[in-house]
Design brief:
single chain, 220 residues, alpha+beta, 5-stranded antiparallel beta sheet, 2 helices, 33% strand, globular
C-alpha cells in the first residue's frame, strides 16, 4: 500500500506540473494553411459607404469580433490599403486614435491558433504591441517590428480569449496612451484538437488505481 500511495502521489505531481500551459508561440510568417481555417474575418462584408465603416461599435464576421477601443473620431476607414491588403476591405482607425484594437470570438470561447496581417498608417511607428488575455488574466505581452505595408502576426497554442493590438514608436507599450495607427486584415483561426485537462487525467488515474486496490483486496 505504501508503494501504491507513493506511486499515486508521484503521478499526481507529474500531472499537476503538466497543468501549467505553455505560453503561445508568436509567429511573424503565415503558419495556417487556407484549407485549415475554421474561422475567417477579412472585412469583406463590413457595412460601408465605399470608404468608411457605417456600422456602430464592434464588427463580427466569421465568428471573429473586432472592436476599436477609444476609437478615432474620424471613423474606421475600410478601403485603406498600405500594401498587401487581402481583398477589398480592411480595418483602420482613420487618422489614427489613442486606443487599440480588440479581437475576440463571438462565442466567448478561447482562440485556437490565430493569425492576421497588420500595417501602420504612420511611417514613424516601428513597433506593433500585443497582449493576450484569458478570463481577465494576462497570458502574454510583447511587440514585433512594424511596417506601413501589411505583414503577418500570429499566435499558436491557444489558451486566451482576447487579443489587444496597437502600434507606436519603439520603447512604448499598449497602454501608454500614445498615438495608434494600426491597420488589420485577414484574421484567420485554426481550431486546436481538444485534449483532456490534466486535472481530469489525474482523477481518471486515481479512479483506475482505486479499482486496482479493490480488485487486489477481493482476490486476497
Amino acid at each position: 500500500m505504501k508503494l501504491l500511495g507513493h506511486s499515486l502521489a508521484t503521478l499526481c505531481a507529474v500531472l499537476a506540473a503538466g497543468a501549467v500551459q505553455a505560453a503561445p508561440v508568436v509567429h511573424t510568417t503565415d503558419f495556417i494553411n487556407n484549407t485549415e481555417r475554421t474561422q475567417f474575418n477579412s472585412f469583406e462584408s463590413v457595412p460601408n459607404d465605399g470608404t468608411m465603416y457605417t456600422g456602430s461599435g464592434a464588427y463580427t464576421e466569421g465568428g471573429i469580433t473586432v472592436q476599436q477601443i477609444n476609437p478615432s473620431p474620424y471613423g474606421i476607414w475600410v478601403t485603406y490599403n498600405p500594401g498587401g491588403r487581402d481583398g477589398n476591405r480592411a480595418w483602420y482607425p482613420n487618422g489614427g486614435d489613442f486606443g487599440y484594437t480588440s479581437l475576440s470570438l463571438s462565442s466567448g470561447l478561447d482562440f485556437g491558433d490565430v493569425g492576421f496581417v497588420i500595417g501602420s498608417g504612420n511611417s514613424s511607428h516601428s513597433r506593433a504591441y500585443f497582449e493576450l488575455w484569458d478570463d481577465g488574466a494576462l497570458v502574454l505581452s510583447g511587440s514585433v517590428a512594424q511596417t506601413t505595408s501589411f505583414h503577418y502576426l500570429g499566435f499558436e497554442g491557444g489558451g486566451f480569449d482576447t487579443i489587444l493590438l496597437r502600434d507606436g514608436i519603439a520603447g512604448l507599450s499598449l497602454h501608454d496612451g500614445s498615438h495608434n495607427a494600426l491597420a488589420i486584415d485577414a484574421i484567420e483561426m485554426r481550431a486546436r484538437q481538444q485534449v483532456p485537462e490534466p486535472a481530469s487525467m489525474a482523477l481518471a488515474a486515481l479512479g483506475l488505481a482505486g479499482l486496482g486496490v479493490m480488485r487486489r483486496k477481493t482476490q486476497a
